[in-house]
Amino acid sequence: MKKTALLTALLVGALAVSPAFAKTRIFLSMAKTNDKFIGILKNSVEAEAVKDSNIELIVADAKNDEATQVKQVKDAIADKVDAVIILTVNTGSAKSVAELTSKAGTPLIYLNRRPPIERFNGKVAIVSSNDLVAGRLQMRLVADKIGNAGNVAILRGEDGHPAATERTQGVKEILASKPNITLVEEATGNWDRAQGEALVTQWLQGGKPINAVLANNDEMALGAIDALKKAGKKPGEVYVAGVDGTADALVAINSGYLTLSLLQNARAQGAQSLADAKKFIGKEYAELYDWVPYELIIPSNVQQYAGQ
């Protein structure tokens, strides 16, 4: 009887201290959640976490406020989370969180938005897609469509946003090698469909011929298409390129109005960010820049992206 009681006590004690029964706690800090693309990122991380019963995922929405995001991460670190995954509000929060996690020795994974930081201390991974490549690919394909001659316009995303900066830079790098293509209009549409429509309407009314519009995202590209339709333009009369591979963009590609989109695979980014967090927690190595490639969507392959 004493022997049985002793064995029971030892087993209970082992269960109490065994790390196998302790949840791995990962903190997911989202800049905001009231955005279609960002919602896919969040849902993807959550879906991957559900697959692992050993993970407890704690999600916070910073409401696009830098101070709120930094405080949320600071509190999570104080609460001894095992890793932080963050979609940053801005440069300020990216730098502050890097300092906080480095000091605490907490692994940090930047999701989607790359931080403007050259050197990192501690365990850091950046899961993103190369926006320079997106811009270059857009312009190469559009240049081919217009016979390497004509007028183009650029709809930029939010000024100061790394993706907007690099996608635009990629477009202009290719433009620099195309002497017969002229950039006649350029402005920020802040990722917004209505703003994209208003800008393209204004440009069309200005009288300058435009052969193509290169937008930093699909929403602005769709706004451009709305403007073109109202101006009586037919599908393919003005080539339009977007980025993100949204459901609405796929419909526009099928209609002939959207020439191409580039899928920034939010589901793959979300899944990889959780995988990298688990690598660090398990004392494994994760790449600093863990690129998720862009995927080109054009009429010939658009059907395979339906329902994604």
Which descriptors apply to this entry?
four-stranded parallel β-sheet, Rossmann fold, 308 residues, disordered N terminus, 45% helix
Q: How can the largest sheet be summarized?
A: 6 strands, parallel
C-alpha end-to-end distance: 61 Å
The CATH topology of the largest domain comes to Rossmann fold
Proportion of residues in extended strands: 15-25%
Category from helices, strands and their pairing: alpha/beta
How many structural units, i.e. domains?
2
Instruction: Please give the CATH class of the largest domain.
Output: Alpha Beta
The SSE order reads HEHEHEHEEHEHEHEHEHEHEE
**Range of helix content:** 40-55%
What would you say this structure looks like, in words?
- The chain has 308 residues and is of the alpha/beta class.
- It folds into two domains: 2-127 and 266-291, Rossmann fold (3-Layer(aba) Sandwich), CATH 3.40.50.2300; 131-263, Rossmann fold (3-Layer(aba) Sandwich), CATH 3.40.50.
- The protein is built from ten helices and twelve strands.
- The chain has helices at 2-17, 36-50, 66-78, 91-104, 131-145, 162-175, 193-205, 218-230, 247-255, 266-281; strands spanning 24-30, 55-61, 83-87, 108-111, 124-128, 150-156, 181-188, 212-215, 239-241, 261-263, 289-291, 295-297.
- The strands form three sheets. The chain has a six-stranded parallel β-sheet with strand order 2-1-3-4-5-11, with helices on both faces. It has a four-stranded parallel β-sheet with strand order 7-6-8-9, with helices on both faces.
- Strand 6, helix 6 and strand 7 (181-188) form a beta-alpha-beta unit.
- The longest helix has 16 residues, at 2-17.
